[in-house]
Amino acid sequence: MEPAVELVDVHVIYEGERHGTLHGVDLTADRGSLLAVVGPNGSGKTTLLEIINGLLPVTRGTVRVWGQPMGLAAHRLRRHIGYVPQDLFFPPATPFLVADVVLMAQFAEKGILRWPTRANRARAREAMAIMGIDNLARRPIGRLSGGQQRKVLLARTMSQQATLLLLDEPTANLDPSSREEISESILRIRESLQATMFVVSHDAGRLLDSADQTMTLVDGRIDRSDEVQAPTAFSTRIGGK
Known about the structure:
- The chain is an alpha/beta fold.
- The protein has helices spanning about 45-50, 75, 100-105, 105-110, 120-130, 145-160, 175-195, 205-210, and strands at about 5-10, 20-30, 35-40, 60-65, 70, 80-85, 165-170, 195-200, 215-220, 220-230, 235-240.
- It has a single domain (about 5-240), classed as P-loop containing nucleotide triphosphate hydrolases (Rossmann fold).
- The protein is built from eight helices and eleven strands.
- β7, α7 and β8 (about 195-200) form a beta-alpha-beta unit.
- The longest helix has 18 residues, at about 175-195.
């Protein structure tokens, strides 16, 4: 079976910059694995998620998702990728209801001009129930707390039935109780969808403890000096070694 994600000698240099953000990154993630990505600010963690999601082109190297090069196929592949960016919060004036935000995830599958079916709405309701936010369905998302908004975005990925989840600091700026709830929710999603997950996190806790592997990025390179290896089929490599 093809791995979920494969990066081969990936380099990324933003336009107008002399120094790259990622340097010679090689990694292979088996389907269903959970990879925690840690490292200091500016080390390339968000860039790593963006190239896997096809939002940012690589300067050199290859990115494959489910065995297919991320490039011309990016739009099609992203239908099955759930991406929650860092610090994505909705201001109080945001008019969308929670139920609509969760349902929107299926528009890529249905097409923006197609009316949602009963099955689509049932899938959205099920996702909200699993996340424990079904009681918030008719509330504007901008009126929710930060932790509740994160749960809505996670329910959105469940409604999408994403099989690859890219979560950038999903527990950042939350109180300890909310961090624990979000971590538990993420692990429930992984079990329910049998999804492959990349989680960028600074917070030690359930997510890092449950990871099949913790990968540290330093200055755009994978640092293996303190790499934590769990007994799984997931592997990372540097420079082809």
